[in-house]
Write a structure and sequence with these properties.
heterodimer, A: 238 residues, alpha/beta, 6-stranded mixed β-sheet, 4-stranded antiparallel β-sheet, 25% strand, B: 235 residues, 13 helices, 84% helix
């Protein structure tokens, strides 16, 4: 589904992503983990067309990021970190705008927005400005933004950061529910959450890939029991 | 094409959600109304020449205030990332935002038609220069909007975007006219061609010269293309 090959990104002299390659299979939930500043967000930004890689390539369903970015953008729903959305717009107006850009036809638009409202629990705040919403609700607007138009791939950058425990559980439930039909890449700092939801784990540290396996695979190869120990060994040791 | 419309609609709506639209329109009408009418009855002439001669300078500091948020605010709050990662091309984003600003400037001009109507009651108003003047005003407003959009794409800080935009617009109106006094005669024609004020006053006389229209269209095109290069470079 997604092939990332020798991806490298420099910001000036700083190497944010260093020769990273991995694949994401169709229907898989992949957790991309790593300490802050490891380069996860940079990888997402290249995958979604926000940044251009210094070298390397990404293919999404045989589309190449250099030549067919628009086709790839049509396939990907993206929730950036902290869900930065237009603060002075009404929730409904915002979702309506995203639906228009996603090319959803007029007849289906209302229904689709309603569906997403149900799924993300937004129906009671549809007519409030985004500015008035709490962080949890804003995050849900971001999730609805990512799901608009039913994209095949979802890229979620720390979807549960800054949420309270109830909201974390709810968001995790949403991810699991939609994950049955979609390919999802997401990151989190809550390791138990990754453990509970994902099929495979890729760990990045200082721009380099340090692990790419299932949790059982990592437990076996590193002879460690808990996920925390595995994470610390991989990202702190060197 | 569809996407230009969607971006346009969103931007245009946003102008009227925030207070900025109402503030800019009020300031515009107060300043230009005051300056126009304060000497209107002394001159004893039933025309809008004074009004149109004030427009370039007024636009030079008001239009950058209209356009300063278009990119700066998005870059600052991060919604720029959402916009860029949606399936919409840079061209559509730029044109949508640009057209929203032009529509806003046009709406800002509409109340001033009252000046023309009330002048026509007082004396025998020649409508040719008035129509020319409004056409010129829209062209001037469009090219300044493009310049303001370019300034807004440079920075995440709206105040900086405003100052850059205003500096460029002022250079195109006042500064060049001022320079004309000090340069050798051979260069006067060249510098005069660069002056937005010069071309605008030509149209406002009621003379539609292709050269003046080409000037405004090319100024807008250069600024919009510059904006494209700036946001392309940000990747």
């Amino acid at each position: 589904m997604i092939k990332i090959r020798n991806l490298t990104k420099y910001y000036g002299d700083l190497c944010a992503v260093n020769n990273v390659s991995f694949d994401i299979k169709k229907g898989e939930i992949l957790a991309l983990l790593g300490p802050n500043g490891a380069g996860k967000t940079t990888i997402y930004r290249i995958l979604t067309g926000y940044l251009r890689p210094t070298s390397g390539n990404i293919e999404v369903m045989d589309y190449n990021i250099n030549d067919h970015m628009m086709a790839i953008k049509n396939k990907i729903g993206y929730l950036p970190e902290a869900a930065p959305v237009y603060k002075d717009m009404l929730v409904y107006d915002y979702l309506d705008f995203v639906a228009d850009i996603r090319g959803i036809e007029k007849e289906n638009k209302m229904e689709h927005i309603k569906e997403l409202g149900d799924l993300c629990g937004l129906n009671e705040v549809m007519h409030m400005t985004i500015d008035e919403l709490s962080k949890g609700y804003r995050q849900r607007v971001g999730v609805a933004h990512a799901l608009m138009g039913d994209p095949e791939v979802l890229v979620l950058d720390e979807p549960t950061a800054g949420l309270d425990p109830n909201q974390i559980v709810e968001t995790r439930e949403i991810i699991k529910r939609i994950g049955r039909k979609k390919t999802i890449v997401y990151s989190t700092h809550i390791l138990s959450e990754a453990e509970a939801t994902c099929d495979r784990i890729v760990i990045i540290d200082r721009g380099k890939k340090v692990a790419d396996d299932t949790l059982e695979g990592l437990q076996k190869s590193l002879k460690k029991e808990s996920f925390e120990d595995i994470f610390m060994k991989l990202t702190k040791g060197n | 094409m569809q996407n230009i419309k969607h971006i346009f609609r969103k931007e245009f709506k946003t102008y009227f959600i925030s207070p900025i639209a109402y503030i800019v329109i009020s300031v515009f009408l107060i300043i230009i109304g005051w300056l126009f009418f304060s000497t209107f009855f002394l001159e004893k002439q039933a025309n809008l020449t004074k009004f149109f001669s004030l427009l370039p300078v007024t636009f030079a500091f008001l239009i950058p205030a209209v356009t300063m948020r278009l990119f700066s605010e998005e870059i600052n709050i991060g919604s720029y990332e959402l916009l860029i990662t949606l399936p919409v091309s840079f061209r559509d984003i730029i044109l949508g935002k640009f057209l929203a600003a032009v529509a806003f400037v046009t709406i800002m001009l509409i109340p001033t038609i009252v000046y023309a109507i009330s002048t026509s009651f007082i004396g025998d108003l020649d409508w040719g220069p008035v129509i020319g003047g409004y056409l010129g005003a829209v062209l001037l407003g469009a090219s300044f909007s493009a310049v303001g959009l370019l300034a807004s794409s440079f920075t995440r800080n709206q105040v900086v975007a405003f100052i850059i935009g205003m500096a460029i617009c002022f250079s195109l109106t006042l500064l060049i006219d001022f320079v004309l006094f000090f340069i050798p005669d051979v260069f006067v024609g060249f510098f005069q061609y660069l002056s937005a004020n010069h071309h605008f006053q030509n149209i406002a006389k009621g003379v539609l010269d292709l050269r003046d229209i080409i000037y405004f269209v090319s100024l807008a095109f250069i600024a919009l293309y510059g904006t494209y290069l700036v946001i392309e470079e940000k990747k």
